[in-house]
Amino acid sequence: MHLQESGEMYLETILILSREKSAVRAIDIVEYMHFSKPSVSRAMGLLKSGGYLTVDADGHIQLTDVGREVAEKIYERHTVLSDLLTRLGVEPEIAAADACKIEHVISDQTFAALCAHKELYDKS
Description:
The chain has helices spanning 5-20, 26-33, 37-49, 65-87, 92-102, 108-123; strands at 53-55, 61-63. Helix 1 crosses helix 2, helix 4 packs across helix 5 (92-102) and helix 4 packs across helix 6. By secondary structure, it is mainly alpha-helical. Strands 1-2 form a two-stranded antiparallel ribbon. The chain has two domains: 5-69, Winged helix-like DNA-binding domain superfamily/Winged helix DNA-binding domain (Arc Repressor Mutant, subunit A); 70-123, Iron dependent repressor, metal binding and dimerisation domain (Diphtheria Toxin Repressor, domain 2), CATH 1.10.60.10. A hairpin with a 5-residue loop joins strand 1 and strand 2 (61-63). The chain has six helices and two strands; from the N terminus they run H-H-H-E-E-H-H-H.
């Protein structure tokens, strides 16, 4: 199953929430993303059937290994891109919003080049 941007956003959100809470539930995602309960429910069903997450009997959502891998990749892109844009003088809120858009379409090659550039910048 190929993930679209919205699926990646849900996985990233679950990762972020799991770092803040011991158990993530659909209502937590609703509140964090400001989406409707039916939208979140439908997305959770699709991500579950795609093998990206599991939901236990108590409604606790956990990422599978595949889901965690995707979520961490997107989250890393978001944090690196936000940092780079902020260093270029973009206001933090705008940098975060722009990074959120870019993180889903940037190629692996371009992202690797940006990371290498950031590494050189950090050393100087």
